[in-house]
Amino acid sequence: MMKMTGKAFGKKLFGAKYERLPRTLLIDIIVFWGLYIAGFQVQVAASVRVLMINVFTAGVMWQALSSGDNAEELKHMLMLPHQNREFVFSYVAVLGAYAVLTKTGLLLAVLLAVSELYNEVISGRM
Amino acid sequence: MGQALLTVENLSAWYSNEKMVLSDFSFELAEHEVAGLIGLNGVGKTTFLKVLSGLLPTFRSDGICFCSSLVDFRKQDFKLCRYTVFAEDNSFSYFTFREYLAYVCAAYGIEVPDVSELIQGFHFEAYADTLLRELSTGNRKKAFLITAFALKPRLLLLDEPVNGLDFQSTEYLYEQIDGYKEHGTILFSSHILESITLTSDRVFVLEDGKIRQTFEHGQINAEDIREALHDENDR
Q1: Is B92 an interface residue toward A (CB < 8 Å)?
Q2: A11 and B95: CB-CB below 8 Å?
Q3: Can you give chain B as a three-state secondary structure string?
Q4: Which residues of A touch B90 (CB under 8 A)?
Q5: Between chains, do A80 and B79 touch, taking CB under 8 Å as contact?
Q6: Chain B: residue nearest A11 by CA?
Q7: Would you tell me which residues 38-67 of chain B have a C-beta closer than 8 angstroms to some C-beta of chain A?
């Protein structure tokens, strides 16, 4: 049931065939390589990076949660007899995946390209 | 008419503090009956169904019993006995009907039943594997109605079930409603007098958030109900 609930939310957020996912990841890769090859460098403190990523992800999740579209979907689902914990877990998990993969991913691509983050990741310091 | 299935005493419901939609609304549904709610726009038909579906938290009541026990509309136990089809529902838009049916059956803990007869009856064969968002209003309604009659819950709530249906599907719906009494109880709201008079064992005429008049089996005829509605309009 948890899997099916996740599927219901996943299809709503990622598309009927989850087509938004590869499209977004492709854009992220293009942005990353474009900026990396261009050689832009910006000093961004690690704490700032973490704050940016967390706040941005939380903001996207909040926006998705409070959309009218989402409310309509939830209304019908809440009428059905779910196990509450499973339902909440599935919902939060899919929403988190949506925020990270389709929105925060772009921010991560930019940060990886323009800051020391990429080199740190490659050299294993992260 | 069987034993009491659902009893509601002095229910009040509201969307904002300024206006009560339902006030001192008392109501009883029996097992294995079809009950119709009729009234002008804004009298509280859909609001009542929303309360029963656990979608409207702003209500109070002196007592609500389901099968003689106090009930919380948001609890699992009651939800397992109830399914609602609303007049407009844009949820699960990225599911096909079959996916939606499988989902709902899993939620209710039952195996997916054979719905070929229902699909045929509602002339839904060409749409069973189409995304719900790509269906017309009427076909989307059919998807939810087929699910409702496949599930056969003890209490089936239908909000304006005839809206958007073509003539043949409407006739089939009346047959399904009529035959549902052996499985459970249906409470439905409608503006279409014919749907009320052809299928209901009891008809409740709503006015100003209360039941103004009740018509029992044998007393149900279009003329008397129309007169009751006209009187309501004249007030």
Answers
A1: yes
A2: yes
A3: CCCEEEEEEEEEEEEECCEEEEEEEEEEEECCCEEEEECCCCCCHHHHHHHHCCCCCCEECCEEEECCEECCCCCHHHHCCEEEECCCCCCCCCCEHHHHHHHHHHHHCCCCCCCHHHHHHCCCHHHCCCEHHHCCHHHHHHHHHHHHHHHCCCEEEEECCCCCCCHHHHHHHHHHHHHHHHCCEEEEECCCHHHHHHHCCEEEEEECCEEEEEEECCCCCHHHHHHHHHHHHHC
A4: 72
A5: yes
A6: B94
A7: 53-55
Domain range list for chain B:
4-234
CB atoms within 10 A of CB B24: 14
With a CB cutoff of 8 Å and minimum separation 6, the contacts of B107 are A1, A80, A81, A82
Provide the β-strand partners of residue B185.
B155
Nearest residue in B to A14, CA atom: B94
- CATH architecture of the domain with range B4-234: 3-Layer(aba) Sandwich (3.40)
Asked if A81 lies within 8 A of B54 by C-beta distance, the reply is no
**Would you tell me which residues 112-141 of chain B have a C-beta closer than 8 angstroms to some C-beta of chain A?**
131
Q: Which residue has the tokens 């749409």?
A: B127
Kindly provide the ipTM of the predicted complex, given to two decimals. Answer: 0.81
Print pLDDT tens along chain B (235 aa).
Answer: 568 999 999 999 999 888 888 988 898 999 999 999 998 888 889 999 999 999 898 999 998 999 989 999 888 899 999 999 998 888 888 899 999 999 999 999 999 999 999 999 999 999 999 999 999 999 999 999 999 999 999 999 999 999 999 999 999 999 999 999 999 999 999 988 888 888 999 999 998 888 888 998 888 888 888 888 776 555 5
